[in-house]
Amino acid sequence: MGETEAIELSITEIITRLNTEITDYTGVKKWQEQTGGQAVGWLPPDVPVEIIAAFGLLPVAILGSQAEVKMASAHLPNYVCSYMRSSLDLVLQDKLNFLAGLIFPQGCDAKKHITDLFERNSQWTFLHRQLLPKQLDRPSSRVYFAQEIRRLISELKRFSGVDPTEEDYRMAVTGYNLNRGLLRQIVEIQQKKRTLSNEQFFAIVKSALLLPVAQCNVYLAEIIDAVSAESADETKIPLVLSGTIVESWELLRTLDEFGLTIVGDDLYAGYRYYNQDLLLDEGIRDPEERIVAAVVKRHYGQIPYSNYFAKDLDKKAFILDLAARTGARGVVFALLKFCDAVDYDYPLIKEALAEQKIPSIKLEIEFQSAASGQLKTRLQAFAEIIRGRGNGI
Amino acid sequence: MAFKKIDFKTKGFLKKTMEDYNTQAMNAHAQGIPVAWVTAVFPVELLYAMDIFPYYPENFGAASGTHRRTEELSLIAERRGYSNQYCSYAKAGLGLMYGNAEQAGKEDFGGEMPQPDLLLPSNIQCTPLGKWFEITAKYYNKPLFLMDSPQIEASSWESQKAYFLQQIHELVAFLETSTGRKLDLDRLCEVLNLSTQACDLWNQVLLFAKNKPARITYWDACILMGPIVCWRGRPEAVHYYTELVKELEERAASDLVAVEGEKIRLYWDHIPIWPKMRYFAEFFGNRQTSIVCSLYTHSWAYKFDAAHPLETLAESYMREFVNYRFDQRVEKKIKLMREYEVDGFIFNLNDSCKPNSLALIEKKNVISERLGIPGMLLEADMCDPRFFAEGPIQNRMESFLEMIGSKK
């Protein structure tokens, strides 16, 4: 017991340091002071951060805020999701002025039409709209996506005055591949041992979206060392989490409270970000075309996302498979309120899970919502249903 | 003076034109004609040229609103797990599909919508329509083709045009494979010319609201627009609008106006609140106010270049107003407001149509400042009565009109 407690403390210590770095972009601001470098914001999904890094710029994800929204409500109708609402609030409150610019992927209708409001209410001279094809099946999709990646490179060149060398691209790709690989190792350990709390696990994922990659990789390696020494916690129930982004730390804590541990997810601020490396094809001689081809290849090998249409990329099949692969005993749908496309997919997935007798629960989440009594009651009941299924737990 | 709506003499012709559309849609399968579900902004000229019948389920959505069935149908979808917060057209359509399926012995869609053989959404308007079609495609195990329309971006324009054109070619191949029908380009050119003719006539119709007082209002246009949506590319639209233009010319000659004693002219954005059409028409009519224009009714203004049939389809359909950025969309609104000499404008923050209403609060401020006219925001769903509070809305509209009246 004593040894276990010491390791627990070690993990806690690492996560505490990591949390300090990711709170209020502290790590990013320190990096800026130390290097004099510029940071560029980006929003998930599907922005190739390796390309930003190859320009010597620090890619920093904008993940909204759990703080009370103060100014954005005067600019937006009430049916805009709390991710976009709180992110715009950060802009309006000048809290993102440390960024030199922003890359805005138009992954959904809200992002498509809110980009203008970010542009109108900020001082950035660089705001790049990354246009994403929403049909993935036909040849035209890849051709257009590749053109969009070339346009991103061209706009970054114009903005930064930098023309990355082959080595710049390679370095960036190596750093982020290591990062994604470490994240995959952590989730694999989590699937086996369930040592980390949900809150800890998602803080780790968040650090990859927010910190300079080299710094993050040191943290991740430390965490892997610490977690590897742990024994498995068989009392925790493994679950799959489905949604887009979970910044509701109260939800994660409540899941922890009832011994429910996320071992697989389909979040774009989660597994979608780190499930694949960027693989450079050495057969392509031009370094720019080489990275374009790699980004295209990764994009078309991605997991499902509700805003994309692809015949053979079925989200229902993916969730069922993920639950089977990870040994999950239930699925939590943490769906961001007003996130239309994702919500349209939910009923058919729920039905399929029910047919396979996999319990699921739908939670409508918002960035600003605290854990309500109702949430606790529902999750407690959910945990009891799963535990009631036996397996000695 | 109490408002009295003057019926159009061509009302019967409109009714028959739309009934013919629905009859042909419902009889298509019996005649061996495939039915393709399409969203409103889809290059349907290709379908008419290939004798594939394009059916617009959004019309059903709007009709369910007009007939006050949206809530009942939505509840069926909501029981299946669909949220009550999303597009009320989609909720009504899904409710009908599942509702009829739940009632044993009844044919799917209860004779109200033809079953699709193909599902052809475009996401120019939005993603939810595509999701609705995707769910339907799975339900009936039918193929779906999404016409993808990224937002128009100057620095991406050449590759966007190429992307859209390539998709048009892919669509033709998809239609030929799915139906066994071949596209005849000469036939397509005929359809494109008919479509251009109908759009031209439709825009002549809308111009009658430029008259002071207006000969027609937005409320009329929302009903009169049926054929330009459904029959675009077919002689039926040309015939009907030819007669309607004649009637409006007669109205002008005999000085017949839409709102007697018109004092205030307004712009409306965007889709009407279908179950309350009559309420709004009477509310404004009784206050000598004409709603004279809206980008919604002015959407159908295609001028196809039949010399380049596929290219013209690609470019025309990409340039739908909702696919533009903030500034360009503001300019389009301002242009209409200036041309139709409005005293103010009403923007509805329609939660069923986020792409059209998400940025309206800032647009209101920008336009008011640019034109020096007041704007008003409404919050109401286009169909679902659960999201329409008549009392507060009426109070705000009263105050708004009083404010404009006091300035005139």
> H/E element string of chain B?
HEHEHHHEHHHHHHEHEHHEHHEH
Number of beta strands of chain A: 8
Assembly type of the chains comes to heterodimer
User: What is the CATH architecture annotation of the domain at 24-163 in chain A?
Assistant: 3-Layer(aba) Sandwich
**Head-to-tail CA distance between termini of chain A:** 21 Å
Count, helices of chain B: 17
Global mean pLDDT of chain B: 94
Give the biggest beta sheet of chain A. 4 strands, parallel
What is the CA-based Rg of chain A, rounded? 21 Å
- What is the class of the largest domain in chain B in the CATH system? Alpha Beta
Helicity of chain B, in percent? 40-55%
Strand order of the largest sheet of chain A: 2-1-3-4
Characterize the overall form of chain B.
globular
Rg of chain B, alpha carbons: 21 Å
Q: Find the biggest chain interface.
A: A-B, 51 and 47 residues
Alpha-beta classification of chain B? alpha/beta
Content-based structural category of chain A:
alpha/beta
